[in-house]
Inverse folding.
């Protein structure tokens, strides 16, 4: 009796979690202009719309530009910081770690208002550098967490062994520490890119019409006149993020052996 | 301190410094800008410095002494920055309408006057003999104001300067804040009601079953928030999948109203935030020795008693951090209520976005943002204390 209840409850929750995401995928292939089931016939017209209509095509390009820029910026800064935090050579390391995580905690709208006023004063509002910087702020926590975890997994004995064999610190870092940390850096970059790809709220505040990202375009499309293009874009995002997540998971698995 | 450790320390600092600098410049400073935007009110005092000084001795009752007239005429005559003047006019006009025409006329007259210091302004425009215009200037002259912060809490200062409650008709912010807490609280409760048994199930399962149950939680976490909200938007529609399915099963005759209302917002937000509840509880429960429940049973406790006295107390830290996390994230939500909710389901973030994007009223946006920021940081502080690590799950 209890067992049956458990199975029913478990399946219901799994369905609640998974089905909504799966349910919208076939709608991307509908030939109708309505987002409803049953699907009359299948076509690729909404994907065609996605790559040919200017607003959608430009928004995909913008997402790649902004995501690429924000990923590069946050990965460089976050990796350096994670290396600096390693080994607790710094006073107040705990406080710094908390500061680096805060962009994840502060409500997006609050940061958005601050960013908007600030970037307008700097003259960076509605420019690519402004949007990239704003996205990078949000991406930094993911890089710091990911690289820190990878560094934590490195056995200090490996580095000590290299040093005892006569390698100077810079060589140890270049030949031992860095290669072992690379999976963490890559998975941090993947998380950063996924975060930027999905970001809407900050973009709403700091981007102009020329920096409209895919997520931002989806947001206004759902709001104003929803069409199956949104489902096609959603499919693109799901496939994209799942590929990225699989890549990150693969790298995390590969970094496991380094954990002593 | 040895020389090596000094070197280690300076190298570590050099590595951390770029990110500290970056976040100080593009994270802390913007937030500080927002906070100051809510209290700084220097548009008028920048343009009318002499008037501000001359008004210091005037108590605000009746009309100001002639010296103030002269100071105002002098200020207006010498103003160079047209944009600053425009901002000052806008600020005054929002307090008492009519200032726009009044000041434009006065600026022209002051520029033409041969001796502005002795000018009687009421000869230029009769409105200068009304105390309310002068009082508006006096109120706008201090460079800092608590007006926005008070307004964010539905309070204002009356003519005498004491803090009073806003009239019920004009008061909306407290209702929005209460609504934000009610929605966030409902979502937290729904997440706890589903998440606790689910986490128990996942922790008790093993092998493929456990992996499957966890994958079901992680998959939505990896999927774009916007995609999940779009999915609910499509599912909950009048002609959406849920209504179609219920009608096909013969459970309903007419479509249920699921979208643009509170129910839709709570369903969609529960879906989005459920992983944040399951993961902390799960991480606490897998550390519980597996033989505890059989031990409780062997001591004569029924399943319910064993749950109440053994498992729940052990799961409590996870449940508490899960609840805090869900509540903390939920109160700042914008996208889901904006897309799935109706006009009466908008939370504090929507109001902030309205002030900032819709009306460019950064003072009010900043004041409400400050309140949301303070509540969120307070919850995060408690969360950090409770879970020992400041990291959020899923990162």
């Amino acid at each position: 009796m209890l067992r049956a209840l458990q199975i029913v409850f478990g399946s219901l929750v799994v369905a609640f979690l998974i089905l909504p995401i799966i349910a919208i995928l076939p709608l991307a292939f509908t030939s109708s202009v309505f987002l409803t089931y049953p699907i009359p016939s299948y076509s690729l017209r909404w994907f065609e719309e996605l790559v040919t209509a200017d607003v959608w095509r430009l928004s995909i390009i913008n997402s790649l530009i902004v995501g690429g820029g924000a990923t590069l910026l946050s990965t460089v800064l976050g990796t350096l910081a994670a290396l600096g935090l390693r080994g607790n050579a710094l006073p107040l390391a705990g406080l710094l770690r908390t500061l680096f995580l805060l962009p994840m905690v502060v409500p997006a709208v609050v940061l958005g208002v601050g960013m908007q006023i600030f970037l307008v004063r700097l003259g960076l509002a509605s420019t690519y550098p402004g949007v990239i910087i704003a996205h990078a702020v949000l991406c930094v926590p993911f890089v710091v967490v990911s690289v820190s975890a990878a560094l934590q997994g490195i056995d200090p004995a490996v580095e000590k062994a290299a040093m005892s064999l006569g390698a100077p610190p810079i060589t140890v870092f270049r030949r031992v520490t860095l290669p072992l940390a690379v999976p963490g850096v890559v998975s941090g970059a993947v998380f950063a890119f996924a975060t930027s790809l999905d970001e809407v709220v900050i973009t709403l505040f700091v981007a102009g019409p020329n920096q409209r990202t895919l997520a931002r375009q989806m947001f206004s499309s759902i709001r104003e006149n929803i069409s199956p293009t949104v489902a096609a874009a959603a499919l693109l995002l799901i496939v994209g993020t799942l590929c990225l997540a699989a890549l990150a998971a693969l790298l995390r698995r590969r970094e496991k052996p380094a954990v002593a | 301190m040895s020389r090596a450790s000094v070197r280690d320390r300076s190298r570590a600092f050099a590595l951390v410094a770029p990110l500290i600098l970056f976040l100080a410049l593009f994270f802390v400073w913007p937030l500080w800008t927002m906070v100051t935007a809510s209290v700084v009110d220097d548009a008028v005092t920048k343009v009318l410095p002499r008037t501000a000084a001359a008004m210091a001795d005037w108590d605000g009752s009746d009309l100001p002494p002639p010296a103030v007239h002269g100071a105002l005429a002098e200020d207006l005559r010498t103003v160079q920055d047209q944009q600053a003047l425009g901002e000052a006019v806008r600020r005054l006009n929002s307090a008492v309408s009519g200032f726009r025409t009044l000041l434009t006329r006065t600026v022209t007259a002051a520029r033409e006057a041969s001796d502005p210091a002795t000018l009687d302004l009421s000869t230029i425009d009769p409105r200068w003999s009304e105390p309310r215009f002068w009082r508006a200037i006096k109120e706008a002259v201090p460079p800092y104001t608590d007006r926005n912060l008070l307004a964010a809490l539905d309070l204002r200062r009356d003519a005498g300067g004491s803090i009073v409650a806003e009239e019920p008709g004009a008061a909306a912010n407290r209702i929005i804040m209460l609504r934000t807490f009610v929605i966030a609280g409902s979502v937290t409760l729904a997440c706890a009601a589903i998440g606790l048994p689910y986490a128990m199930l996942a922790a008790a399962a093993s092998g493929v079953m456990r992996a499957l149950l966890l994958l079901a939680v992680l998959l939505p976490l990896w999927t774009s928030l916007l995609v999940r909200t779009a999915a609910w938007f499509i599912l909950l529609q009048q002609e959406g999948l849920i209504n179609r399915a219920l009608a096909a099963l013969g459970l309903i005759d007419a479509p249920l109203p699921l979208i643009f209302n509170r129910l839709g917002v709570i369903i969609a937000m529960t879906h989005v935030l459920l992983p944040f509840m399951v993961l902390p509880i799960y991480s606490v429960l897998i550390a519980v020795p597996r033989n505890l429940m059989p031990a409780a049973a062997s001591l004569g406790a029924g399943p319910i008693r064993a749950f109440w006295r053994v498992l729940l107390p052990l799961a409590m830290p996870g449940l508490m951090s899960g609840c805090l996390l869900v509540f903390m994230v939920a109160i700042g939500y914008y996208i889901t209520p904006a897309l799935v909710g109706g006009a009466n389901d908008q939370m504090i973030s929507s109001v902030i976005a309205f002030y900032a994007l819709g009306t460019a009223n950064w003072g009010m946006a900043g004041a409400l943002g400050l309140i949301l920021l303070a509540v969120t940081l307070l919850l995060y502080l408690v969360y950090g204390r409770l879970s020992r690590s400041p990291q959020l799950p899923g990162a």
Remarks:
- Residues 54-85 of chain A form the longest helix (32 residues).
- The mean pLDDT of chain A is 89.
- The radius of gyration of chain A is 22 Å.
